[in-house]
Amino acid sequence: LNLERRLRRALRDGEFLLHYQPQVDIESGKIVGMEALVRWLDPEVGLVPPSAFIPVAEESGLIGPLSEWVLREACRQNKAWQDEGLPPARVSVNLSARQFQQRDIAKLVTAILEETGLEPRYLELELTESTIMRNAEEAVVMLNELHALGIGLAIDDFGTGYSSLSYLKRFPVDRLKIDRSFVSDIGASSDDETITSAIIALAHSLQLQVIAEGVETAAQLDFLKERACNEMQGYFFARPMSHEAIAGLLQRER
Ligand code: G
Ligand code: G
Ligand code: MN
Ligand code: NA
């Protein structure tokens, strides 16, 4: 059976699941968000990472139904946590380039928010810099539509693409996510430290929030804290984990 057919079957049989990685406010140390990361629990192979199936899903058109499932599940789960009385946090969902190109994405998000009852401010969409810049004019229109819904928008892998500053000003985004490649070299490469500092300063001057991803050490966290980076995500705090595990972490913050 080829991968595409296996993925189709996996979707039908409910073999996908979401892991969540905490996003922490650096000042307070509290969990303020979490990134939803899809996994496939293949009964024969075990847990399969997204890098092994997202590209195939994108080529085969399966990315549509898969992303729709991810979005719905993330919203449903977040609303369920809030209904259980856990401290509210936003959930961030990655949107692939293919999905962003679909003109009805705002309609889909609207429908899913209505269906799950999640308040828009507790949903954020992550788009990579390259996805947005692929067709920047079109992106401005679509980002405006999405932003009008009241959800958050973040630029993922920031610093690896080629956003021009003039576009950055026109994109109605709330948050920049500093790419892991820069963060991981804090303490090792002065160039990457300079880039990280510059991105934080840029975010502040454009009145955007900024989050560093891939934070693995206390020294990296100190560097970010000194520069008033707002949030951090990375193994230093926690790896992506099951919904049960992250509910346990949220519970401790009540
Ligand atoms: O989850 P991991 O920890 O292995 O993530 C690897 C990559 O897969 C990341 O770049 C992430 O953005 C992407 N990814 C994870 N979940 C999703 C998803 O639901 N949709 C899309 N389009 N990409 C995802
Ligand atoms: O590309 P995107 O940022 O959406 O994907 C997040 C990816 O980064 C996931 O694969 C996640 O498992 C991984 N990740 C999260 N935190 C860390 C970290 O501290 N170190 C490393 N090496 N990877 C991380
Ligand atoms: Mn991401
Ligand atoms: Na990223």
Account of the protein in words:
With 254 residues, this protein is of the alpha/beta class. 47% of the residues lie in helices and 22% in strands. Helix 3 runs parallel beside helix 5. The longest helix has 21 residues, at 63-83. It is globular, with a radius of gyration of 18 Å. The mean pLDDT is 95. Manganese (II) ion (MN) is lined by residues 35, 94, 126, 156. Residues 1-254 form the EAL domain.
If strands are numbered along the chain, what order do they take across the biggest sheet?
Answer: 1-2-4-5-6-7-8-9
- For the residues shown, what is the average pLDDT? 95
Largest sheet: 8 strands, mixed, barrel
DSSP strand content: 15-25%
Helix content: 40-55%
Quick one: overall form? globular
**Whole-angstrom Rg:** 18 Å
Please count the beta strands (DSSP E, at least 2 residues each): 9
Overall structural class, as computed from helix and strand content, comes to alpha/beta
Give the distance, in angstroms, between the N- and C-terminal Cα atoms: 47 Å
Compressed to H and E, one letter per element, the order equals HEEEHHEHHEHHEHEHHEHEH
Protein name: EAL domain-containing protein
Domain EAL: 1-254
Set out the fold topology.
Elements: H1 3-12, E1 16-25, E2 31-42, E3 46-48, H2 54-60, H3 63-83, E4 90-94, H4 97-101, H5 105-116, E5 123-128, H6 129-134, H7 136-148, E6 152-158, H8 165-170, E7 175-178, H9 180-183, H10 190-205, E8 209-213, H11 218-226, E9 231-233, H12 243-252
Parallel strand pairs: 2-4, 4-5, 5-6, 6-7, 7-8, 8-9
Antiparallel strand pairs: 1-2, 1-9, 2-3
The chain binds guanosine-5'-monophosphate (2 copies), manganese (II) ion and sodium ion (NA).
Protein name: EAL domain-containing protein
Domain EAL: 1-254
